[in-house]
Amino acid sequence: MRKCEVAVLGLGLMGGAALGALLEAGVDALGFDPVAAGSDRGSSHGSCRIFRRFNFENPNYTGLSDEAHAGWIRLQAESGQTVLTETPILEAGRPGSAMVASSRAAAIATGRPDPMMTAAVANKEFPAFNLPDDWDVVVQDGGAILHTATVMKLMRSCAANRVIPERASFTPRHDGVSIRTASEEFFAERAILALGPWLGRALPQLTPLLNVTRQAVGWFKPARPETVALGRFPIFILDRGPDNIVYGFPDFERRGVKAAPHNHGPVVGPDDWGPPATDAELRPIGEALAALVPGAAGPIVDRDVCLYTNTAPADIRLDAGDEFIIDRWPESRLIVCSACSGHGAKFAPAIGQRLARLATDPSYQAEPFFQLSRYSQFA
């Protein structure tokens, strides 16, 4: 039986960052994942995610963003590969948009100049847009395209022979965690579970708190390519009303404008990655582009499906849901990470450090708003 101090099950962005943090600290750690970097499955697949310094979801996230940004810049410097491509972020919504107000407040709280501007000024500065005159608009710095496909390959490469590319099952024991693959048995003193949409299957007690949803993603051939090129066009997040948020990227890959809904799609199982996003699923996104970003609107040229693993609203330390779980599992040597809810990718270096500390420092606790005890069944 092969032994290690810490095992990491699941090597997406969160698990990969945790494994990297452990190995960098000199911990004897192994990572397990049958899904290869570059696969079209797993919560971290695909070429890019949005990095935002100022986050409308939680006012406490700015410090987390800054910590993560330092980690991304360090990885970029050490590897010599592009991890972050800086670009402004335009956030806009109907008058009184809570999303825009929260993002604006997060920036002002750090002493930044007020990022608010009129829709008319935004349309002039970024001519791909046709935002209604009465919409609220902020344009923030501190944004970037996070090149996740590059990051995934770098993380696997850095971990090298500490990665076991096999499916693994685990059994908690009083003195650690027994782990078995098809070819070998392992024993770890502690194990981090960063299993994305499969977490509820591994820990059925979590199932009532997690919803896995199908998210359609499309790439659109822009009507005016010159207006959506990198450097002329920002990342955008548009609040069109309750549960109707659309986001998108500049055409930085010459593949078209990537755009998708941020509202929850239909609930699915963790293995339901097909079929590809349909025309019907992408039609509302095309209509939103035609109305609000006509320079980016056009035929669908590529499509994909992501799965969000969304947390339910908490009932002890109240939140609105879609928060992260970063905590020790009760009465075990397991550490749980369900850190996506559709907006966790940008924080991976910071979350990886927290997971590593939970596995190695008995006195450490993650922030209260990440802990399981915010739910009554774990209080």
TrEMBL record:
Q: Which domain of life is it from?
A: Bacteria
Q: Which residues form the FAD dependent oxidoreductase domain?
A: 6-358
Q: Which prosthetic group or cofactor does it need?
A: FAD
Q: Where is the signal peptide?
A: 1-20
Q: Which Gene3D superfamilies match?
A: D-Amino Acid Oxidase, subunit A, domain 2, FAD/NAD(P)-binding domain
- Flavoprotein listed as a keyword: yes
PANTHER family from the UniProt entry: FAD DEPENDENT OXIDOREDUCTASE DOMAIN-CONTAINING PROTEIN, PEROXISOMAL SARCOSINE OXIDASE
Q: What is this protein called?
A: FAD dependent oxidoreductase domain-containing protein
Species name: Bradyrhizobium manausense
